[in-house]
């Protein structure tokens, strides 16, 4: 039986992961499930899947969790340190599906115990790509992408020599405002931004799709994961979202990964890797689809893409600063303190202010340095938001 742990089990990726695990009773032993605040969901899943331990990140909810698990035999714990402890329990496969920079330390803890880490938490690669790869190497852990674009690239690269890759193209749905007139974007509300034209995801990543901060993170994630020159990485808008990514080779061939938008494909690929197993995802009827369309990923409409290029050029801790500034700007937008179109300005101002910070252009990225850069970027972003 494979021992599995799901970090961020109560979220959108976490629930899809549990769906796949629950379909194969007897194949998996669930070690730990963690959630942020949703005690009822966490406890119900931990009972149903007979997890060893359930951990809620919000410390104030420990009593609630204990009550909800009473008599189940599932251990309960709470707090940030407990989430990291859960991640470091021996397991063969760990899903990293906490949202934001909070996912970094638990993911590292899982890699340190030599697990295969299925990485949905793209922020880990954006903030600390070299550290993630080095930790996996040092402890014999394996890192597999779960972000659909990166899973697509990973699959297109099986059996190929990375040196023959000419370009990597990741696709973007364009999010909620892809067809809005530019001048209306300043009036966009959080509710409008959180409505995705193609699928259901967590609130934050859905708003990040509308602003393309999500795609900006994914460009950086592509650079870190596959180690390719940023000049070879492109984004294109593909409203149907059926091609997830394409890899172009030196002979001109372009290998596309085409599939329905169901995250259980990328999750399942990582769960069964290196094998392929049947997955409960819809099969595409190409003739019924008729056509697939593409548009340029315009950097005037989506200036976050331009910032991603700057971050990739700068390297060091720029990714950690970018992500933390973005998370703070997103909070401010959700709280209606800044406009949708102001988020990029806040992030750019933070990048500019901290660009000369000593110690930020380092090659040896450590968790402590990331935590410090993350904190400084959040404080700086708050100041900038307040001064507006
Ligand atoms: P979500 O908001 O639905 O779920 C996030 C999970 O993290 C929840 O279990 C939540 O309780 C937990 N959490 C939140 N803050 C936490 C904290 N401080 N400490 C511990 N746990 C915390 O998000 P999601 O859409 O499932 O996304 C998870 C990750 O996967 C993100 O990094 C996202 O970018 C990435 N991702 C998501 C999708 C998707 O389709 N949803 C696709 C690709 C990548
Ligand atoms: Mg993605």
Write the layout of secondary structure elements.
Layout: E1 2-7, H1 12-22, E2 28-35, H2 39-48, E3 53-56, H3 62-68, E4 75-78, H4 80-87, E5 93-96, H5 104-112, E6 116-119, H6 122-139, E7 142-145, H7 148-156, E8 165-172, H8 190-193, H9 203-211, H10 213-226, E9 233-237, E10 243-249, E11 254-258, H11 264-272, H12 286-289, E12 295-296, H13 304-314, H14 318-334, H15 343-354, H16 367-386
Parallel strand pairs: 1-2, 1-5, 2-3, 3-4, 5-6, 6-7, 8-9
Antiparallel strand pairs: 8-10, 9-12, 10-11
Residues 8-14, 35-38, 57, 83, 97-99, 102, 120-123, 147-148, 201-202, 204-205, 263 line the site of nicotinamide-adenine-dinucleotide (NAD).
Account of the 3D structure:
This protein has 388 residues and is of the alpha/beta class. It has 3 domains: 144 residues, 3-Layer(aba) Sandwich (Rossmann fold), CATH 3.40.50; 130 residues, no CATH class; 74 residues, Rna Polymerase Sigma Factor, Chain: A. Helix content is 44%, strand content 16%. The strands form 2 sheets. It has a 7-stranded parallel beta sheet, with helices on both faces. Strands 11-10-8-9-12 form a 5-stranded mixed beta sheet, covered by helices on one side. Helix 10 packs parallel to helix 13 and helix 14 runs antiparallel to helix 15. The protein is globular and about 55 Å long. The model has no long low-confidence stretch (mean pLDDT 96). The protein binds nicotinamide-adenine-dinucleotide and magnesium ion. The site of magnesium ion has 4 residues, from helix 7.
């Amino acid at each position: 039986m494979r021992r599995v742990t799901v970090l961020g089990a109560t979220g959108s990726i976490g629930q899809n992961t549990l769906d796949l695990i629950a379909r194969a009773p007897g194949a998996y032993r669930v070690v730990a499930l963690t959630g942020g605040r949703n005690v009822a969901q966490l406890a119900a899943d931990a009972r149903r899947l007979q997890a060893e331990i359930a951990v809620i990140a919000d410390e104030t909810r420990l009593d609630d969790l204990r009550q909800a698990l009473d008599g189940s035999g599932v251990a309960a714990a709470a707090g940030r340190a407990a989430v990291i402890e859960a991640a470091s329990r021996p397991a063969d496969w760990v899903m990293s599906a906490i949202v934001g920079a909070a996912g970094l330390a638990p993911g590292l803890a899982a890699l340190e115990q030599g697990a295969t880490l299925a990485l949905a938490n793209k922020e880990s690669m954006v903030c600390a790509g070299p550290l993630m790869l080095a930790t996996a190497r040092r402890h014999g852990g394996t890192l597999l992408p779960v972000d659909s674009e990166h899973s697509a690239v990973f699959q297109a690269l099986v059996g190929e020599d990375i040196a023959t890759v000419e370009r990597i193209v990741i696709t973007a749905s364009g999010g909620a405002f892809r067809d809005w007139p530019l001048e209306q974007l300043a009036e966009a509300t959080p509710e409008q931004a959180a409505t995705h034209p193609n699928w259901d995801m967590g609130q934050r990543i859905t708003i990040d799709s509308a602003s393309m901060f999500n795609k900006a993170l994914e460009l950086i994630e592509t650079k870190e994961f596959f180690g390719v020159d940023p000049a070879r990485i492109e984004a294109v808008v593909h409203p149907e979202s059926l091609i997830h990514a394409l890899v172009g080779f030196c002979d001109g061939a372009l290998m596309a990964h085409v599939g329905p938008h169901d995250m259980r494909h990328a999750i399942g690929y990582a769960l069964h890797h290196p094998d392929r197993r049947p997955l409960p995802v819809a099969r595409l009827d190409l003739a019924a689809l008729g056509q697939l369309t593409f548009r340029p990923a315009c950097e005037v409409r989506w200036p976050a893409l331009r910032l991603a290029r700057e971050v990739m050029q700068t390297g060091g801790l720029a990714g950690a600063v970018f992500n933390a500034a973005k998370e703070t700007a997103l909070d401010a937008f959700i709280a209606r303190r800044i406009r949708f179109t102001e988020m990029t300005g806040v992030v750019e101002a933070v990048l500019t202010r901290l660009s000369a910070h000593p110690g930020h252009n380092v090659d040896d990225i450590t968790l402590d340095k990331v935590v410090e850069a993350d904190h400084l970027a959040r404080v700086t972003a708050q100041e900038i938001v307040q001064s507006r």
